[in-house]
Amino acid sequence: MGCQSNNATPPSPAIAPGAEAIDPRAAARAARIDPRIPALIPGFDAPFFQAGLAGYSDAAMRLVARRHGCPCCVTEALLDRTLLSNGRGFDKADLGDLCDNVPGAEDDHPLIGQIMGSDPDTMAAAAVKMIEQGARPPRHYRDLAEGLTPAGDVAPSARTFAAIDVNLACPVKKIAKKARGGHWLREPQGAIDILRAVREALPPHIPTTVKLRRGSDDSPEAERNFMRIFDALYELGYAWATVHGRTVEQKYVGPSRWTFLRELTRSRPDRLIFGSGDVWTAHDVFRMLEYTGVHAVSVARGCIGDPWVFRQARDLMAGREPAPPTLAEQRDVLLEHFALSVAVNGEALASRLMRKFGVRFAEHHPRAELVRPRFIRVESIDDWRAVLDEHYAEHAAAAV
Ligand SMILES: Cc1cc2nc3c(=O)[nH]c(=O)nc-3n(C[C@H](O)[C@H](O)[C@H](O)COP(=O)(O)O)c2cc1C
Q1: What is the pLDDT of residues 104-158, one digit of tens each?
Q2: Which of 8, 79, 96, 167 has the fewest Cβ atoms surrounding its Cβ within 10 A?
Q3: What separation in Å is there between the alpha carbon of 143 and the centre of ligand 1?
């Protein structure tokens, strides 16, 4: 849960005056993927993707999303030092699980690996290790982080990440006074040093991207810092930036400012820019595309317990009316997600993790208020099946 913080806020409408007049169906039919995106990441064939979501977006969630039409996923933010120490020596609760960040299976592609940290050399070593999937002895990467050896030839493994994303967005507070994530937005030169080190450490054909917020706060200085980092990242060779329209100070509370994204795309028309914040439905995907002019939309809290958002977005693009999931479809996905989570996390952890997904999946059920408390009490796969038998079976469907 490295990047989790006060996320229990209900859906908020973005700051986007006039967006209500947009017809999402027409916008979806007109939507296209910018050809520069699949040229960089083959398979990324639609203008939306699943965001990194610490504590949620493990291989199980990603595979379910992909089976519903999600064209690309990002891992949660992995701390560089966690990666270099093979996940040992750090508090898991703060730093995220290493296993959540490795490609989950042959069909967990394309997958963008996200890293976060405080030091340019350590970030560069972590990026190299991620792309190589740890092919060299662990000490080599640690030496690299200490600046003791040059990177040498980076040899991407066959099953690796499609790109490396640098997180300059996470609002979780600084550790030991060292900036990381979104806190770099207050120190633009430090952010640029990290971006340069990561870019230079990787071979040119491995794309690098950045996730950042629209500023550390609402001050003019924060906006100047943002613009300095934003312009520098493209000059350094980064392919795109995903901009979350909230400030670091806001964490996840209050609206995302789509007007900021719109001004940004207008002022930098040649840049590939992705947008994030307040995308709750498939309609929102196309409202954001149309309103802001971004090239792709990050689906974050909106796809927790709702993988159908991706199918619906594809339906809208094809001119089909999107259908809500039937109870039978919900049952199938609830079983599938749990089984995948057991495979990734083991049954005990999966049972705990799946409770919070169950709460969100329950929102699709006609008797959400009955189903939700049942998911919260699940302790095993048998408990999970019992909820499904009781509330998602055909006779349950007939009773609602
Ligand atoms: C629980 C939680 C964990 C998150 N973890 C990450 C993360 O690891 N990496 C990242 O880039 N963004 C992370 N985010 C931010 C989301 O990707 C997204 O930018 C943000 O939630 C705004 O989009 P939304 O309002 O549509 O949810 C996280 C958000 C939440 C709520």
Answers
A1: 556 889 999 999 999 999 999 999 988 888 778 888 888 899 988 777 788 777 6
A2: 8
A3: 32
In a domain, 12, yes or no: no
pLDDT digits (tens, 9 = 90+) for 316-346: 999 999 999 999 999 999 999 999 999 888 8
Q: Based on the domain organization, do 233 and 377 belong to the same domain?
A: no
Query: Does 11 reside within a domain?
Result: no
Pocket around ligand 1: residues whose beta carbon is below 6 Å from it? 3-4, 7, 51-55, 76-77, 114, 167, 169, 211, 244, 252, 256, 276-279, 298, 300-302
State the greatest distance between any 2 C-alpha atoms of the chain, in Å, as a whole number. Answer: 68
Phi, psi torsion values for 111, nearest 5 degrees: -125, 125
In-domain check, residue 112: yes
DSSP lists the bridge partners of residue 166 as 115, 210
Q: Is the pTM of this model over 0.85?
A: yes
User: Do residues 205 and 342 both lie within one domain?
Assistant: no
- Find the helix or strand (DSSP H, E) in which 369 lies: helix 368-376
| Nearest alpha carbon to residue 74 among 33, 111, 116 | 111
52 CA from centroid of ligand 1 (Å): 6
| Ligand 1 center from residue 244 Cα (angstroms) | 9
- 268 and 122 co-located in one domain: yes
- The domain of 391 spans 327-399
Residue 129 and residue 119: Cα distance in Å, rounded? 15
